[in-house]
Amino acid sequence: MVLLLRASTCTLIARHVPLLSSARLQHRRSLFFAAKTFSRSASSAASKRARSHVHASIVQAGGITISREDVVKEDDPTNNVPDSVFWKLGLQLHRRDDHPLGILKNEIYKFFEDKFPGKYQKFDDLSPIVSVTSNFDDVLVPPDHVSRRYNDTYYINSDTVLRTHTSAHQAQKLREGCTHFLVTGDVYRRDSIDATHYPVFHQMEGFRVFSPAEWDASGMDGTSFALQDLKETLEGLAKRLFGDVETRWVDTYFPFTNPSIELEIFFQGNWLEVLGCGVTEPAILENNGRAGTVAWAFGLGLERLAMVLFDIPDIRLFWSSDLRFTSQFKAGQLGIKFKPFSKFPPCYKDISFWISDSFTENNLCEVVRGIAGDLAEEVKLIDSFTNKKGMTSNCFRIAYRSMERSLTDDEINNLQARVREEVPGKLQVTLR
Ligand code: FA5
Ligand code: MG
């Protein structure tokens, strides 16, 4: 969803009004169902697991060293970064040439290189720790915009965040004099839990500046010229990645572009949103040394595209270090289809409580993820009612499932017991 709509939808969900559009709901559901289509081909190699989740307390990213203490500050009320997110910093999946995200990034690089040799500057190692100014103000996100809330964004302190999108680097790159650039990186959002949403994912930003001479010759105004070029470029990219695929453009809203559109791809019977883009707001160009020019920008979700291209049914798999996952992909090979190596059933546990005004679904997801990590497959509101006294009760169903092994009853009961233990204190709710 759009930056704006995404956050407000979360807020709406938090108020227990399932206002997701039916198409989007269907899309979410369909992908969720897709997550259940694991084949039964659990091979004898199943026993050869390589689960080496070594958690370092110091990571390298964007040319700097980041220690846990720099990012996770439990006693600081202006900080909301959990350990589970700190451990993802520095992994930089998009920089691994034999990882689906790295293979896809390289293929997009090739597309731009073939079409415009030597023209686009590429950045894939910019630090994900950015100022509130870069992430929001520089791209004209209004001060009261929902996406800035602690419910939606990971704050290190009140001035510094984990970037929520690669658009956080637009202004800086413009000021450095770049006119054609691609920025790839890990981005962070407090979000709901399901097969296509994860608190850390990867985006690629594209940006191109045009000078008046370029559109004058066409007889078009600058905005129409840039919009046409943007659409042609991205349709060309979609064709290169997917072959003859059905695409459509949907009008949307972003604070930093006008007009703003999203590209959807028809995949397995559903329209899948893969990127947002538009013609850059003139103020961004004016504020960063490019007055009088026109530009386009796009931000695409690498996981969304990679799930389609490689047949990867669940977004958590990208983080797997299981050899049965990682060994299936080879540098430079986009056509490979992922062969599911296991089909382990999910286990569902419900939790019901009386909510308070401050309760949000994102906060619940964070508690669940803090306890169950990637074993949490989905958290879903299944029932809500308000009694005569005006108290509202919610029932959430948590799906626990491992991509890599069977979970024991004891293990799941233990996780659920810890969720029940932490939820009342952390979320100010009363268990029923
Ligand atoms: C943005 O983040 C804008 N910065 C994109 C942009 C850039 C627009 C430049 C205009 C100009 P949005 O929130 O819609 O927009 O996210 C962009 C893409 O990231 C989505 O289309 C989707 O493919 C992907 N995405 C968004 N949220 C998630 C998530 N939780 N998990 C995985 N992928 C996601
Ligand atoms: Mg969107």
Give the neighbour order of strands across the main sheet. Answer: 3-7-8-12-11-10-9
Task: Supply Rg.
Answer: 22 Å
Helix content: 25-40%
Largest sheet: 7 strands, mixed
Low-confidence stretches are 1-54
Number of helices, where a helix is a run of at least 4 consecutive DSSP H or I residues: 14
Range of strand content: 25-35%
Q: Which ions, cofactors or small ligands are bound in this entry?
A: adenosine-5'-[phenylalaninyl-phosphate], magnesium ion
> How do the helices and strands follow one another from N- to C-terminus?
HHEEHHHEEHEEHEEHHEEEHEHHEHEEHE
Distance between the ends: 33 Å
Q: Helix/strand/pairing class, anyone?
A: alpha+beta
Number of strands: 16
Shape: globular
Mean pLDDT: 86
Family: Belongs to the class-II aminoacyl-tRNA synthetase family.
Enzyme class: ligase
InterPro entries: aa-tRNA-synth_II (IPR006195), aa-tRNA-synth_II/BPL/LPL (IPR045864), Fdx_antiC-bd (IPR005121), Fdx_antiC-bd_sf (IPR036690), Phenylalanyl-tRNA_Synthase (IPR002319)
Function: Is responsible for the charging of tRNA(Phe) with phenylalanine in mitochondrial translation.
Quick rundown:
It holds the Pfam family FDX-ACB. The protein has 14 helices and 16 strands. A 7-stranded mixed beta sheet has the order 3-7-8-12-11-10-9, sandwiched between helices. Strands 14-15-13-16 form a 4-stranded antiparallel beta sheet.
